[in-house]
Amino acid sequence: MGVSFQGLIPSRPVAFADLRGKTLALDGYNILYQFLSTIRDRFTGEPLRDSQGRITSHLSGVFYRSARLLEEGITPVYVFDGTPPAFKLATLEARGKVRAQAAEKWKEALAAGDVEKVRTYAQGAARLTPEMAAEAKELLGYMGIAWLQAPSEGEAQAARLLQQGKAWAVGSQDWDSLLFGAGRVVRNLAVTGRRKVAGKEQYLDISPELVELQAALQALGINREQLILLGMLIGTDYNPGGVKGVGPKTALKLVREHPSLEALFQAVPWEFSMPPQELLDLFLHPPVEDMDIPQARLQPSAVVEFLAGEHGFSRERIQGAVDKLRQAREQQQAGLAGFFRK
Description:
Helices cover 50% and strands 10% of the residues. It is α/β, with parallel strands linked by helices and 342 residues long. The longest helix has 27 residues, at 315-341.
């Protein structure tokens, strides 16, 4: 989803230790989709479910990944999407059709016993419902983790938190955060570990990486408006596929040669469903609000009852993780108290 700058924009590895003491604004829907896609049975592609058949992959991911961040001294703040821009509706509808097609191919792969295709199509069929998002917010509240509801795009609101000085980086797989003006983006927060290479018996080590907007602009030799134009040529959530026949390298060459929208519009045959100026304005001036990050309090017993009591997670495992989480919170608070006494 979103624009693909892979191989074009530089990044560097970043360890959890490097993020200690920092607040990360996480693109809530983006991360939930990652959990729903990856936390599945390796043979059947089925997501985790409780005894009532309700999907719980997203809850497992939110709990264990958030707990890990907190144990590392990182403060996560989840930012969830609000009402999408009107011209994104066609993209959302198209994605729904793609997921439906993936679900059918998943069934066919299961019947054929093709484990590789089962995994691929199961991930493509992942669907996030409003009920799942509500469950994730409920769990976050019990864990003492703040979350915000954006008026529109979550990654735009997350970028605004950085601009306000209330977060250090956006946590998201989508490069679009850079187009919205996020100064730093941390990728791979939710998929740390090993990932199988499609069609091969090979695995890649996946670890967090940091992308810095100013460093990216300097490396590409362009400004932020040109970066947005570059994204528009390649394709964003609002104009999937971009301009036909224009790949990343060609797009970069074009925005360097034609640094304004007007000049680029004359040089490239645009076929957008909306005026390109509207799309440029969306990234430059997205619908966001100045928000304060709310205070939240860890409720250990509520976490255990929600996950173990209501959704059938192992009570012993959840209790053990909650105990570690409580210790991490106490150490963090003790450290802050010591800081203010100095």
